Amino acid sequence: MRRNRHTIGVVAAAAAVSLALAGAAVAAVVGHRAAHATKVAVTESEYKIAVAPASLKAGTYAFVVHNKGKLTHALDIGGPGLATVKVPAIAPGKTRTVTVKLGGGTFTLWCPIPGHAALGMKRTLTVAGTPASSGGGGGGYGSTTDPGTDSGAAWG
């Protein structure tokens, strides 16, 4: 009986170590992608979108979208070689981050909440460099962060 308890303890410890290593590997991959992304600050309010910096070079960017307004907003990003990237609704005072790979061209950022773009929540962003190829699934990818925090914790 004592030997069975010892074996169970060893197996449980080995499983815990395996899970910890798997988690560390996933964190390293996510951290590697984020480490190579340049931050772009996007501020939304009624009824405007501010972006800093205002022009970019082709590359990977972490769009940090902060809702400074009193109403709920969201953000969509579209342009050449990019399937539209959608940042879900952002409550007032909250922030979400999406990582996007952009090729050269003119991209449009807008709030998809009905009526917001028509009231001024739409702008363009110029990206210098070679345009992304239009074949396949587009040149960008999105990885959005937790809507309830500013921590950058990934959510699915």
In words, what does this structure look like?
Helices cover 22% and strands 40% of the residues. The chain has a five-stranded mixed beta sheet with strand order 3-9-8-5-6, with no helix packed on it. Strands 2-1-4-7 form a four-stranded mixed beta sheet, with no helix packed on it. Mean pLDDT is 77; it is low at 24-34, 135-141 and 143-156. It contains one helix and nine strands, in the order αβββββββββ. The longest helix is centred in the first third of the chain and has 34 residues, at 2-35. It is an alpha+beta fold. The chain folds into two domains: 1-35; 37-128, Cupredoxins -  blue copper proteins (Immunoglobulin-like, Sandwich). It is globular.
Provide tags for this entry.
about 160 residues; alpha+beta; 2 domains; 1 helix; about 40% strand; disordered C terminus
Radius of gyration (Å): 20 Å
Share of residues in strands: 35-45%
Major sheet details: 5 strands, mixed
What is the distance, rounded to the nearest whole angstrom, between the alpha carbons of the first and last residues? 43 Å
Superfamily (CATH H level) name of the largest domain: Cupredoxins -  blue copper proteins
Reported CATH architecture of the largest domain: Sandwich
What is the CATH class designation of the largest domain? Mainly Beta
Morphology call: globular
Mean pLDDT: 77
Number of strands: 9
Supply the number of helical segments. Answer: 1
Q: Which runs of at least 5 residues are low in confidence (pLDDT < 50)?
A: 24-34, 135-141, 143-156
Order of helices and strands: HEEEEEEEEE
What's the number of structural domains? 2
- Kindly report the spatial arrangement of strands forming the biggest sheet: 3-9-8-5-6
Structural class: alpha+beta
CATH topology descriptor of the largest domain: Immunoglobulin-like
